[in-house]
Design brief:
The longest helix is centred in the C-terminal third of the chain and has 67 residues. This protein has a 3-stranded antiparallel β-sheet with strand order 1-2-3. The relative contact order is 0.09. The protein has 5 helices and 3 strands; from the N terminus they run E-E-E-H-H-H-H-H. Helices cover 64% and strands 14% of the residues. Helix 2 runs antiparallel to helix 3, helix 3 runs antiparallel to helix 4 and helix 4 runs antiparallel to helix 5. By secondary structure, the protein is of the alpha+beta class.
Length: 253
């Protein structure tokens, strides 16, 4: 005879270590956490050793009793929601550090790190939405016995989860806007550099053109003048100076 049970599947936040340029970086992801509620026991299943259950394993979870199964499940829910908030604050702090680096370096490395954080926020937002559906279904489910304290705790879980979802959306919007702004700054700096180099090329070509004329084997004005070299140099400096002044006036140099 098949035993009656309730399967609850939620997403829990997790940190994955990865090596980037010989440095160990934290990558924020989500992993499924299954809770199987049997008649006498509760079974939790996770791909890795979940940090959500760490306080329970170490005996540091306040108000935890083995005979209060429903409250134990709700405590796991509350732990998941608070961990989402904790990791979201960590992501926000890390993004601020990267932004400070971007003000100085403006390299692709920092933009890639911001992109990784934005991907983590997308994972968080998707998982929080799915968790919200599970929590609200739990609120309507009559198969799981609840007392008044359990109802209050479940409402707190839903509130914490919604707060985490709002924070994830806000941080994702800020991060996306920051990346677009810095990408525009980098592109503008590149355009300015190309404009400066093009201007320098034009200015440097003026002496080359004049020297080329007087390097040809054809009669040119002033070729018999003993001061022709100084006249040509003076004319070159004068024309180059005029071009530089024009470019500076046009904000091209």
């Amino acid at each position: 005879m098949e035993e009656d049970y309730t399967l609850i599947l939620i997403d829990a936040p997790a940190i994955e270590k990865e090596q980037v340029d010989k440095e160990e970086k934290n990558r924020y992801i989500t992993m499924p956490l299954a809770i199987i509620n049997l008649a006498d026991i509760i079974i939790t299943v996770s791909l890795n050793d979940s940090q959500v259950l760490l306080p329970i394993k170490s005996g540091k979870l306040k108000g935890f009793y083995t005979y209060k199964k429903t409250r134990f499940i709700l405590q796991i829910f509350y732990r998941v929601a608070t961990m989402f908030l904790q990791y979201l604050r960590a992501i926000n702090r890390q993004s601020e550090i990267i932004e400070d680096k971007l003000h100085v370096s403006q390299k692709n490395k920092e933009l890639i790190e911001l992109l990784e954080l934005e991907k983590s926020l997308v994972y968080f937002t998707t998982s929080l939405r799915s968790n919200e559906m599970v929590f609200e279904k739990m609120l309507r489910n009559e198969r799981v016995k609840r007392y008044q304290d359990d109802e209050d705790l479940l409402e707190d879980v839903i509130i914490e989860n919604k707060q985490a979802m709002e924070m994830a959306n806000i941080y994702s919007g800020i991060l996306s806007g920051t990346m677009d702004a810095f990408a525009s700054v980098i592109s503008n700096n590149q355009n300015s550099a190309m404009k400066f180099l093009a201007t320098v090329t034009i200015v440097m070509s003026i002496p080359t053109i004049i020297a080329s004329f007087y390097g040809m084997n054809v009669p040119l004005p002033g070729r018999n003048n003993p001061y022709s070299l100084f006249l040509v140099l003076g004319a070159t400096v004068l024309i180059t100076g005029i071009v530089v002044l024009i470019f500076r006036k046009k904000d091209l140099f």
